[in-house]
């Protein structure tokens, strides 16, 4: 028997036959002698089973008359028989052609943007930046110049220090590195005091320090000079560093007397949106009315571990009732102080104390004022302007 690959057999087609008669073995010898390929020869109770290629089956029929062996076809398999079966169904052929044309068209376009490396910068903001630069799902891959685009991203966003882009099939991979602190400036500059304070800590990376710990400084006073004297000459640089100072601020905050409280009522609803190749198709009719908390969940379809441009978005509405209650002076005071602490913390400031508190009630609001002592980086950039002779 001759070994034939499965792919070869499928392409050229095979016929499984049964051989009946006294001289079945003689016919097998004749087949082999005439160079006809066969395989899977099996002996049954009163017949032999063997498989031959479609074209060889025609030769076999001529050879059998010399051996008085009867041949019965058991089954036919392979591409030639499949084509013959559907030869009158032109829709299948047209559909197959359209499928490969669309597949080829899709392979030349970008259908997925994969963002990596972002921590505090939301993915949606980066996607919005890309869209503003003319990059969106469905655009031709040939129209995306990754070298130019990465420079445009860094120039457009102050919170991104570095970006790289790679094309992987129909996926655009965007890797970003976020700015750690203030974005670097290449212009020569000084650091001056943003407001009054008493210096508590100095941490300077470049420039000439003009103050020391314990000094009292006023707004606009020079803290770190961008002019550095190395003995052999003066060099201008970009002053960098942090100077922490104890400073004071008078805060005034207003809050409404009525406090809003939300209580979930169990009226939950889900809506779905199907997205294919950037086209969004709502799977619902009408709109949701009333007060709800909104949560959105996106499920991306994957194939062989790769994302494909098909997704299902679930929009979850959680019903709620809103109640209003009048705040007491103490409750209003605590809410305002909590808000102040959060604002200062968000700005990387450390509150030391809150004193001289005063709260009054006027019409439908409370007015709160207090003195806040805190530690803060008081450095502000002041460009150096000089004229060359």
Describe the 3D structure.
- With 389 residues, the chain is an alpha+beta fold.
- The chain has eight helices and 22 strands.
- It has helices at 6-12, 24-33, 54-63, 79-85, 90-107, 123-132, 146-156, 329-346; strands spanning 14-20, 38-43, 48-53, 70-77, 112-116, 160-168, 171-178, 189-193, 197-206, 208-209, 216-217, 222-225, 227-229, 234-236, 240-256, 258-276, 279-282, 292-303, 306-326, 350-362, 365-377, 379-383.
- The strands form six sheets. Strands 11-9-15-21-20 form a five-stranded antiparallel sheet. Strands 2-3-1-4 form a four-stranded antiparallel sheet.
- Strand 6 and strand 7 (171-178) form a beta hairpin.
- The radius of gyration is 39 Å and the shape is elongated.
- The model has no long low-confidence stretch (mean pLDDT 83).
Layout of strands and helices, then pairs:
Elements: H1 6-12, E1 14-20, H2 24-33, E2 38-43, E3 48-53, H3 54-63, E4 70-77, H4 79-85, H5 90-107, E5 112-116, H6 123-132, H7 146-156, E6 160-168, E7 171-178, E8 189-193, E9 197-206, E10 208-209, E11 216-217, E12 222-225, E13 227-229, E14 234-236, E15 240-256, E16 258-276, E17 279-282, E18 292-303, E19 306-326, H8 329-346, E20 350-362, E21 365-377, E22 379-383
Parallel strand pairs: 5-7
Antiparallel strand pairs: 1-3, 1-4, 2-3, 6-7, 8-12, 8-22, 9-11, 9-15, 10-12, 13-14, 15-21, 16-17, 16-19, 18-19, 20-21
